[in-house]
Amino acid sequence: MKDNLLHIDGPRLWASLTEMAKIGATAGGGVRRLALTEEDRRGRELFATWCREAGMSVWTDEVGNLFARRAGTDANAAPVMMGSHLDTQPEGGRFDGVYGVLAALEVVRALNDADIVTDKPIEICSWTNEEGARFTPAMLGSAVFAGAMTLDDALARTDAEGVTLGAALDACGARGTRPVQGVAVDSYFEAHIEQGPILEANGTTIGVVTGGQAIRWFDVTVTGVAAHAGTTPMRYRKDAFFGAAQMALEIERVMARYAPLGLVTIGQIQVANSSRNTIAANLTFTVDLRHPDDAQIDAMERDLRAVCASAAAARGLGAQIQHCWTSPATPFDAACVGLVAEAVEALGYPNERIVSGAGHDAIHLARYCPTAMVFIPCVDGLSHNEAEDALPEDVTAGTNVLLNAVAARAGARVPQAANAEADA
Ligand SMILES: [Zn+2]
Description:
This protein is of the alpha+beta class. It contains 13 helices and 16 strands. Strand 1 (57-60) and strand 2 (66-70) form a beta hairpin. Helix 8 (240-255) runs antiparallel to helix 9. The mean pLDDT is 96. The protein binds zinc ion.
């Protein structure tokens, strides 16, 4: 198929997105389709119906991941997978997740229209509970599939009302019998809105996603001496708050060395036994470090520790840094990213390489099989918001990229042409 670029039917995909957005539609123009609720059940059913109409077989696995399969000519080949999620945030939008699922369906419809067969089967998966809004953690279905979480652990998770995931699966009719783990996969491709402002700001249509960034979380505890706010002269004080404030500004200054890829956030500050007329003696703040490169985040951690130690020493304070959690960098597969890049170039869309700032099912899949993602811009960079929006031409462009990358990976051909080649 090298010289034959394939194209999807943009208006058909848009119509499907519009139809799906009616399920759980909110007054504010968004969607509320929480995992394994009645709305989710209706969304799954509509998607399954469309897949069957496209000639696909449909099933769910033990954790409710919803699969649809288009057969390939090689009965022994592992499938090329596409997917994302149909669940939303409580006040979610019309594109987060559902775009990747319906783009995948449109890829299959377009292959059908063009009478194209593939050597490898093509499967679509809508992963259970990606958003983490009803059950924690987020990306639960893909985590179990990829072996990052056990099935039993997932089934025992409860929502705010104490309903287990297992019970919710049954209530939703989503619990299947196919094993969720140990499934052979050739590769995984996910299309998604960027959920940030970068593509739009740069005027690019497609983000060729190179991977997910590393994340490290710390608690920094600053220790001073509690004393009376009215009787203690300033030069005698060991004030944990002003020490922490100095650390915070120093951290921001030092981390600028790692811009634009390096990110630092202090999201929580807590003063123990705080009182307005007592000098703060025991303060803890959180630090969230992110970078797509593990070596760079190592360096960021060293800088964080050095900055806190020197600011504490200068003020006679104690500073303790506790590491809480790490998620390593997840580079995507070079060959799959290459197929996405080739498709984008051949189609002629303005594009750039981009790192996934948010968590996605693809991050779990990338630790399991060769994986790539395609990003399209979202209006004003907004997501997890009822106003979330994407332009029809971008929706079409991203799906054309997905189509051509997946077709290449799956060994797409028009049967007659293949026969003619074999005869020659
Ligand atoms: Zn999503």
